[in-house]
């Protein structure tokens, strides 16, 4: 069943000299040349009614996800003079998110996106505003921890957007693959631009500017997103049999180890550039990695989906490149290696997230997506701590061994896991919207 029908062609009218005698015979060829080309997969995707509206809100609300952590660190460190306190506060926020986010997602699945996401976002925004007030007024340190923990109610906007695509494209596996690729590219873009925007606002304006802007963008984007009611997945009335945690159990270790790759690579790159006296360029170099992943994600959406094992294999191979480049001492070589390594992450995440959709019990897709994201965040925390320890003990070059080793572990998990689904299985499950593992 096609997503849209291409109609019409472009009529080119020229008036000059009389038409030659061969014009009637040439007319069919001219019509073929001027006929409009079939639109690409992304153009067909956003031709669906309502998709542009909720995507606009999604992107606005998703951008602050890359802003809040950097903004909080710069604000707290700038006002209180302690990076240790700033790091502890943000770490507490991540821990609270790991507990609260799945509960929020479960409520969204049970009662609908608009009904839960808006009040949950308002609570998170109040937490951000409370953090600003406590920092500015010199309130006790525990108030900073409490305020930042409240922001854990922030809904998983990426998961809600993917749930909408899954609902709209449940009978079109190829289009669903394109949508998931777009969502992954959007993740990379927002986490690439978010920290840059936060650092600019906090540095150029005032320390609280990043948090204020992030809160405003989050609330505005969420209101736009939830106002698009036509594309919202209906609340299912069938019994919610099965647990997302149990269904995704075999996949969560893979997400955890992939998070270790992300977290350790970031810390290793920052440390390496700092040792080279190029600490100010770390944001640009990391942005190159995200740009490579974003480009690869968009390209991956135009081709046939590969198996998860193949994607993780490519990830394991390409993650060795930054380690080799760092050993040469060449920053340009490292930048190129990071771009290539980044190009392996988007296809891996797109394919893995598609399996999340296929495995999650019907009616609990937001909860399943949030569990996967929580596993990634936990891995990022482990990877950051591990790479930091290696930097202190063996130097920044050796720290690149951490993401390379984590990628090999991810490959081992993918190769030995009995539950890694074949693409054909995934397509069948998406078409039927059963979302249950047949194994």
UniProtKB/TrEMBL annotation:
Residues 1-21 form the signal peptide. It comes from the Bacteria. InterPro entries: MFS, MFS_trans_sf. Gene3D superfamilies: MFS general substrate transporter like domains. The chain crosses the membrane at residues 56-76, 83-104, 116-135, 251-272, 278-300, 307-325, 331-350, 371-391, 397-417. Keywords: Membrane, Signal, Transmembrane, Transmembrane helix. The keyword Ribonucleoprotein does not apply. PANTHER family: MAJOR FACILITATOR SUPERFAMILY (MFS) PROFILE DOMAIN-CONTAINING PROTEIN, PTHR23542. This is Transporter.
């Amino acid at each position: 069943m096609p997503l849209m029908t291409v109609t019409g062609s472009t009529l080119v009218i020229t008036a000059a000299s009389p038409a030659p005698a061969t014009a009637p015979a040439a007319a069919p060829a001219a019509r073929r040349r001027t006929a409009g080309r079939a639109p690409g997969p992304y153009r067909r995707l956003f031709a669906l009614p309502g998709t542009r509206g909720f995507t606009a809100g999604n992107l606005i609300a998703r951008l602050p996800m890359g802003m809040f952590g950097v903004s909080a660190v710069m604000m707290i460190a700038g006002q209180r003079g302690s990076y240790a306190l700033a790091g502890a506060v943000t770490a507490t926020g991540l821990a609270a998110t790991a507990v609260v986010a799945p509960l929020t997602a479960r409520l969204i699945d049970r009662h609908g996106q608009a009904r839960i996401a808006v009040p949950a976002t308002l609570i998170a925004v109040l937490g951000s505003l409370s953090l600003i007030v406590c920092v500015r007024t010199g309130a006790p340190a525990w108030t900073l921890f409490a305020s930042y923990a409240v922001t854990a109610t922030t809904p998983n906007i990426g998961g809600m957007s993917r749930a909408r695509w899954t609902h709209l494209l449940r009978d079109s596996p190829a289009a669903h693959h394109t949508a998931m690729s777009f969502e992954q590219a959007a993740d990379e873009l927002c986490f690439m631009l978010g920290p840059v925007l936060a650092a600019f606002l906090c540095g150029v304006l005032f320390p609280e500017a990043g948090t204020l802007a992030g809160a405003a963008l989050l609330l505005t984007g969420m209101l736009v997103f939830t106002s698009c009611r036509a594309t919202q997945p209906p609340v299912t009335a069938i019994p919610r049999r099965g647990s997302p945690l149990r269904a995704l159990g075999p996949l969560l270790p893979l997400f955890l180890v992939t998070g270790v790759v992300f977290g350790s690579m970031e810390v290793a790159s920052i440390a390496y550039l700092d040792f080279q006296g190029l600490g100010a360029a770390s944001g640009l170099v990391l942005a190159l990695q995200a740009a490579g992943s974003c480009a690869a994600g968009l390209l991956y959406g135009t081709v046939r989906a590969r198996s998860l094992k193949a994607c993780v294999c490519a990830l394991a191979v390409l993650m060795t490149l930054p380690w080799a480049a760092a050993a040469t001492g060449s920053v340009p070589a490292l930048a190129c290696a990071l771009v290539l390594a980044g190009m392996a992450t988007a296809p891996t995440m797109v394919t893995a997230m598609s399996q999340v959709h296929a495995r999650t019990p019907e009616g609990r897709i937001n909860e399943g997506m949030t569990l996967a994201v929580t596993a990634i965040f936990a891995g990022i925390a482990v990877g950051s701590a591990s790479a930091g320890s290696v930097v202190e003990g063996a130097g920044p070059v050796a720290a690149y061994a951490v993401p390379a080793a984590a990628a090999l572990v991810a490959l081992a998990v993918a190769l030995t896991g009995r539950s890694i689904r074949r693409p054909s299985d995934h397509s069948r499950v998406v078409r039927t919207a059963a979302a249950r593992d047949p194994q």
